[in-house]
Amino acid sequence: MTALLAARGLSAGYGAFQALFDVSFEVNPGEAVAVIGPNGAGKTTLLRAISRQVDATSGTLRFDGTDFTGMPAHQVVSLGIAHVPEGRRLFPRLTVADNLRMGAFPAAARVKFDERLAEVYELFPRLKERAGQLAGTMSGGEQQMCAIGRALMAGPRLLLLDEPSAGLSPVMVQAMFDLVRRIRHAGYTVLIVEQNIRQVLQVADRGYLIEAGHLRRSGTAEELLESQEVRRAYLGVA
Amino acid sequence: MAQIFDIFFLEALLNGVLLGGLLALLSVGLNLVFGVVEVIWVCYAELIMASMYCIWWLHAEAHWPLWAAFGAGLGSGAVLGMVLHQFIIRPVLSAEPINQLLVTGGVLFFLQALATVLFGIDYRNMGIRLPSLPVGEMQFSVARLVTFIVAVAAIVATWMFLRRSFMGTAIRAISQDRGVMPLLGVDPGRVYLLTSAIGGLLVGLAACLLVLQYDVHPAIGLTFGPMIFLICVLGGLGNLLGGMAAAFLFAQFISLGGFFLQVEWGQVIAFVFFILVMFWRPQGLFARPA
Amino acid sequence: MNSRGNSPSMYTVLFGVGVIALAVVPMLGLSGYVLHLLITALLWSFIYTCWSLMGRVGLVSFGHGAFIGVGAYTVVLAWNFLGWSPWLTAGLAVLLAVALAAAVGWPCFRFGIVGHYFAIVTLALAEIVRLVIVALRDWTGGTLGITPKPLPEGASAAWTLQFSDKRVWFYAALAMWLIGLAVWRWVDRSIHRSALEAISEDEQAAASIGINVTRAKMGITVLSAGLTCLGGVLYALYQRYINPDTVSGLTVSLQVVFGVIAGGMSVLLGPTVGAVLLLAMSEGLRLALGNDVRGIDLLIYGALLVLFIMYLPRGIVGEALRRRPPPGPPAKVEVGGEGEGEGEGRRVTSHP
Questions:
Q1: Where do the H-state alpha helices sit in chain C?
Q2: How far apart are CA C53 and CA C101, in angstroms?
């Protein structure tokens, strides 16, 4: 089975500061893969490298076999990768409906707009209730739903989630991970970066542990949860 | 006596409303571009002047039918907007804001000089005489009425575009969060260019309307350019609705000021009012929260 | 900062030589035209330098035409209608300019109006002054302009500042220019400069360490406005003809900003270089292209301005200084911020 997403020897950084060193990983269709590690480990940079917001200084990125290492950032969605960024980044003064509309901006997505909108409203009935509400006035959990819904409007094959539980109350965090499960069951492939290690490894099939820009360990969710390194990193975070 | 006073006052008031429509249209173009690109087209009025010359020349000198000249005027506006953005503004987008202001200021000088070289400093007229429409004891220029109607229609059309279309939504979104746009498949550069084209189109439309009422001259930009800036800032730079409200307000000051005193005093009062509002609500009367 | 007490640096010496050379110029018997060019250059250098007092700390004014206009028209109107000597009315004009600057500046600074907004508010001020001048056409002659009345018989030229001898004007302009440079230097080396720089970098941080932001900005604004006004006074008395478009309004205000940017905002002689450059450009083009095709010189001028901003954003002096290898132990005046012309540098937005 070809990996849906494959990165080989990926290095990336910001100017003089290198955040990722020679990282290789893959995501297979239908999987949920977690990326865990302490603060500042480079997890967000990894997602940003995939969505091409950050240039790779070396290495390759392949999606369904196609090399997209040099692709301009705004074309990545059309490739099939949707990135829900850290902090959600909704448009605060646009309504929920308009935010979702923005998700369907690419030409291919516009054609399926009505269909996708119905799907998203079915996944997130709360969004349908609040369709006319300004996104900035919603709660953290609702905003996260909207952000994910917006990403789904593009009909992606791979969903990148950057710390979806950040800033949410414990109750909402639980709801968030339930949501991720539901998205998985709807057929989406997910790569999820999280601080909340226990929760994310319960949702994911596999995971990667990143520390200081290096890939320290990989394995199934169970393996990671039992491993020394994760316990160490987990304690470090706690 | 009081009767006549009232009727002429009403006429001035209504003329103010008609003027307000035109100023509102002018403000929409500038506000739209600023809201998206975050650059003020200091040469905005000069772009209008350039399109006016285009229309005048095609109709009065090359004898194109009026509708064709107007079409070309619209087109020239859109092209000017895009060219301005692509070749002049885009290279300085990463420079300091003062340089961005100045580069369009330089275009201001350039366009004035170009118009002078090509057409001289004489006032040019389209040779179109539109009648006046009597309403009771008041007289309203048909040109002004047509201008008002077209302006309002254009504003409504722009509004619909922004509300309903995908690109329109992107235009509304980009000023709220630029960085996330590529993640949604939007190339910000393209949005900038398209917005500049729309701004330019509105410039062209304004030129069509103005050329019906006023003679064109290389320096006419200076007569209404600064006023448009003030109106936009008064309403909150980038705020389309605010700019329109400010436009109608400004127009009343000018119209009523001109009614009671000289024309220039109307403008002075409007400008002073602007400065006073700056004291009270510096971000503009209707600015969004920062 | 400048070394104190040591032997003067090379730059100071060169500058001194240059000033002496200039002082000698009128005695060389050069034509009136050349003297006129020099006077104009000195005058505008002075005005540009005064503008840059504000500009270099991020207060970009598009309205200095207001102060030039106030200066010019106050002295001429007071002489023509009241017979008052310009020595008196210059002071009056400065007070008026300062009052305007304070009236507009204080609310802006108090409420944190910066950047584009500030530029437009100042633009409004310049336009108001222009409109008022035009509206008062019964006194000012409106757009046709106005001339100071000639001296009555037996009146003293010195008292009324109406000298026919260009050489007197040359020394007046030279003195004014030197005063402008001295003020610039004084501000640059005083504690105010650091405070203002801190403000232009980060207002909130500056306020949090006790800098009275509003007062600092007011100070520099009022200084800049008052001095610029004097430039307008000199201009009116020398040119003996003024009209609202050449001394007030958007056009002249823009030209001032261009001049400073062209030369370089952060360096003492930057504005001067800019003034000389713009003058050389416009005169040169006018001479080369003649008056055959009206406006070609302005066309090229406008194009050059645009190209300047696009490709030499730091101005000529700024760029030149940037390319030089760093000097050894500091023995010269520090060039503030590497000729960066910080402006509103704190606004950082990513653009495609």
A1: 10-24, 32-55, 65-77, 86-110, 115-135, 137-140, 157-160, 166-189, 191-201, 203-208, 213-239, 244-247, 249-263, 270-289, 296-311, 315-323
A2: 14
Beta bridge partners of A33: A191, A206
CB contacts of B116 in chain C (<8 Å) are 294-295, 298-299
Report the 10 Å Cβ neighbour count for B288.
15
CB-based contact C111 B262, cutoff 8 Å: no
What CATH number was assigned to the domain covering residues A1-80+195-238? Answer: 3.40.50.300
Spatial distance between the Cα atoms of C287 and C115, rounded to a whole number of angstroms? 38
Contact pairs from chain A to chain B, CB under 8 Å: 67
Chain B touched by A103 (CB under 8 Å): yes
Kindly state whether B195 is in contact with chain C, defined as any CB-CB distance less than 8 angstroms.
Answer: no
Does residue C190 belong to any structural domain of this protein?
yes
pLDDT tens by residue, C141-183? 888 888 887 766 555 666 666 667 788 888 899 999 999 999 9
Closest Cα in chain B, distance from residue C161 (Å): 32
CB spacing of C113 vs B98 below 8 angstroms: no
| Residue B220 domain flag | yes
CB-based contact, B111 to chain C, within 8 Å = yes
Q: Evaluate whether residue C5 is within a structural domain.
A: no
Instruction: Identify the chains in contact with B, defined as 3+ C-beta pairs within 8 A.
Output: A, C
Q: What is the pLDDT of residues C77-97, one digit of tens each?
A: 998 888 888 888 999 999 999
Interchain contact, B172 vs A98, CB within 8 Å: yes
- Min CA distance, C179 vs chain B (Å)? 27
Count how many domains chain C has. 1
Interface with C, mutate which of B96, B262, B274 (most C CBs under 10 A): B96
Query: Is residue B95 domain-resident?
Result: yes
CA distance B112 to B93: 24
Domain residue ranges of chain A, discontinuous segments joined by +: 1-80+195-238
Q: Which domain holds residue B185?
A: 15-119+147-280
C274 within a domain of the structure (yes/no): no
pLDDT band at B194 (very low <50, low <70, confident <90, very high): very high
| Structural domain includes residue B136 | no
Q: What's the pLDDT at C341?
A: 32
Quote the pTM value: 0.86
DSSP letter assigned to residue B183: G
